[in-house]
Amino acid sequence: MDLLRFSTAGSVDDGKSTLIGRLLYDSKAIFEDQMEAVEQASAARGDPSVDLALLTDGLRAEREQGITIDVAYRYTATPKRKFIIADTPGHIQYTRNMVTGASTADLAIILVDARKGVLTQSKRHSFIASLLQIPHVVVAVNKMDLVEYSETRYQEIVGDYRAFAAKLNMRNVVYIPISALHGDNIVSQSQNMPWYHGATLLHHLETVNIGAGRNNVDFRLPIQYVIRANSAVDLDFRGFAGQIVSGRIGVGEEVVALPAGIRSRVAGIHRGDESCDRAAAGDGVVITLEDEIDISRGDMLVRVRNLPHSSNQIDATLCWMSEEPMKIEWSVSNNFSGQWYWLQQSTRRVRASVQELNYRINVDTMHREEAPTLRLNEIGRGQIVTTEPLFFDSYQINRATGSFILIDPHTNNTVAAGMIRDRARRVSELVQKQEEREAPSLRASRSSNVVWEPVAVTRPMREELNGHGAAVLWFTGLSGSGKSTVAKALEQRLFALGVRTFSLDGDNVRHGLNSDLGFGPEARTENIRRVAEVARLALEHGNIVLCTFISPYAEDREAARALAPEGSFWELFVKCDVEICKERDPKGLYERAERGEIPNFTGVSAPYEEPVQPEMVLETDRHSADELAQRILEALARAGIVHGGNS
């Protein structure tokens, strides 16, 4: 039986607690002693009838004032589904509590009073539901009994809400007219609204597809605890415990541990006292690996070919939850002088500082406003820098790894909830910056009759979006010298850092793009020319391009260098004694060339012109491919092309 988490939201006195109480009562999910307590409390307050809202209003202040202050959680089930219900407050001063209750919800019920229509707080909570990417929304038009169950009034409210929702990123919105007080369309179809032919609220909650909003692709396991053997049964046992927050994993699959970047395979999966072959999002598991890897709390296990972003600078939407205004640290240094917070993302906690507040969002108009800081219950966009890199996905595609909280280090209070923005959304801003740099008079031309062309997306813009520079790494050397081996080892390290790469080698080019070319001098020159043109295009798209070609002629390599911007072409001479190259030759090419079966073979019957001043010399007969790959990575880091490459 699956589980649906849903929250209620809306303006004050829209009937959220009454709705949940009615839902629990009509679905027979209340114990006798609970009902007796509610009846006594209602009588003590002098209520004319039993107030079902008291089933969720647990605080004394809530019962005295008839409002919801804190988030109340209730657990119930029907034969079709289990439910966790979050009853959230409607008052504006408790917006932070609403954010807390809705942050893990699969569905949000937005209540609207049929008499009052769509109010500011209804819009505020709808905006937060949209911001939190809650997959399903139910707009429950409540208190229909007070407007004589008018279909006209219901349609007016639906029209108003649809006009507002069009400004938000809201999907799967369902509208249901109800009366929580009398139970109309809660569990059973209402006889008072024969014009409504849709599902009841409970039926919708039981049948809504909650799997569609969950990320079952990107395997992410934040490590919460490392379990060592505590008995003589298995002294070598070492398991990594945590909850899989997204995706699936199976025994035998290859994973990588972040931030170490070390690969291994899943040896076993333990769920409780049982072993299993597979596990999925939501499962609490203990995973064992085939190799001994140093992993601790705050690290993350992911699939090798499905890595999250890694950065110490994030672009996020913030919901401020503290009475103390947000503190901004203007220094871009990671050694924060005073205005810093703890950033908690899943099991990982690092020091962080708000570097910049871009704008505050007016939830009434959805307009962006300039503001020096954020105050209690305000929402805005900011740039955050951390002392250690985070491993994250955008909140839009993975709510678990795309969210975080900020904690005051002095009081240990949670001061903000954050949602990491999709990095692709920054493209429009980068385009705007580029326009301002390259065409200062562009705005003037927009207001006149001058025809103008939009500025194209450039390599520097792509580099800023990617978070790393672009370069062409040209590996040259004899056949068998180890060009491809070193390049592949380097690409694995770049991939683990989230760097965009593009690989070109003799095999994948000769069988496709250059299948019409031979191996004579002119054909070799044309082969390198075509490869250099493709490498240039890949470079302009912000990639680090790895080219592994014998490329025996210095003139051809210089022509390739000339196509790239200055400083972005690295000639890497993979140097190896020819006799060792022959020993390594797995295809027997050298032997065939010496017998005359392969004409124009470099190093035997054709010359190789060694680079005179390459950017690096890689001696593969003295160092391993892993050592050389690490050297290249460190050189790229020193040059500022990539980050995090230093060991």
Keywords:
single chain; 647 residues; alpha/beta; Rossmann fold; Elongation Factor Tu (Ef-tu), domain 3; 4 domains; eight-stranded antiparallel beta sheet; six-stranded mixed beta sheet; 17 helices; 28 strands; 27% helix
Summary, kept brief:
This protein is 27% helix and 27% strand. It is an alpha/beta fold and 647 residues long. 38% of the residues are buried.
Structure in words:
In the N-terminal section; belongs to the TRAFAC class translation factor GTPase superfamily. Classic translation factor GTPase family. CysN/NodQ subfamily. It comes from Caldilineaceae bacterium SB0664_bin_27. The protein is α/β, with parallel strands linked by helices and 647 residues long. It folds into four domains: 2-213, P-loop containing nucleotide triphosphate hydrolases (Rossmann fold), CATH 3.40.50.300; 220-303, Elongation Factor Tu (Ef-tu), domain 3, CATH 2.40.30.10; 309-427, Elongation Factor Tu (Ef-tu), domain 3 (Beta Barrel), CATH 2.40.30; 459-638, P-loop containing nucleotide triphosphate hydrolases (Rossmann fold, 3-Layer(aba) Sandwich), CATH 3.40.50. Helix content is 27%, strand content 27%. The chain contains 17 helices and 28 strands. It is elongated and about 105 Å long. 38% of the residues are buried. Mean pLDDT is 81; it is low at 58-70, 424-428 and 441-453.
